């Protein structure tokens, strides 16, 4: 049995990963999470102490990080400021957590010679034209658009440098947009689902033509475990499940699955610099490491996600009013 240290394990994708590890391995998980507005201890409820230990703390706290690294066998780094809209409003926390935080962890990985996996996003590659025949691959040049994606790109480059300069045993994965349980209501899919549950019309940025490549968070987790197990040190792997959909189609599908007319939503002011299209080519992960997603039917995954938000109002309700007040102040 190994002790996995998971940063950001009380956030959306991190908590899905912790549940996945507990369900599919014998490993123990130690979660390090600062419980920012995006972290929620309730996302880890039901996990017993002998499988999961929670430590509240900041990844920029070098002393605490050092102590936790001394007890771990491997580290998976999810902690980040992750919301594009927030990064346009106040970029500073993105620099602190995504850049300085990752630097702090890399220095500890170097001191303790620990296996390190860095979680990143396809947003580091910028965006594609709607009719571009190419998708992102591991060779696509970095071209981030927002303070969020540029700080994630910076953190990826730090990892690459610490591998090359100091021999840190790290891998990187860049994943497409995730959906599933435990996602904060500020994000696109949960925001629309919880609006409908509250009897409020969903909000669509601009014309809704922006394309995202959706993957279920549980498939992201299985891909990360695969990379941790079989990935080659120093390599980057793109994670995606061929789930391209434009935002308009997603909103209309949510409405249909929730028994509402497909056109009962409002258009709101678009996000500044809104990336047009992301699309992942995950051939390397599939062919070299033999990983395959299990949620290949987006509609079925979305239906299950809607049901989760129906069943877990006590999880999302406390954040809902504050999020909508923030969007309203931006005309969105
Ligand atoms: N959401 C997506 O669709 C997506 C897609 C690809 C990659 N990613 C990446 O996956 C990771 C997790 O994303 P998410 O959507 O789960 O984010 P999230 O915002 O839901 O969760 C982030 C977690 O990190 C914690 N955290 C933030 N700053 C911290 C700090 N300084 N110290 C310790 N903990 C801190 C928060 O409390 C929270 O629990 C991020 O690195 C993100 O870039 C996300």
Automatic annotation (TrEMBL):
Chain coiled-coil ranges: none
Reaction it catalyzes: dTDP-alpha-D-glucose = dTDP-4-dehydro-6-deoxy-alpha-D-glucose + H2O
Gene3D superfamilies in UniProt: NAD(P)-binding Rossmann-like Domain, UDP-galactose 4-epimerase, domain 1
EC number(s) reported in the record: 4.2.1.46
Family assignment from sequence similarity: Belongs to the NAD(P)-dependent epimerase/dehydratase family. dTDP-glucose dehydratase subfamily.
Cofactors that this protein relies on: NAD(+)
Protein name stated in the entry: dTDP-glucose 4,6-dehydratase
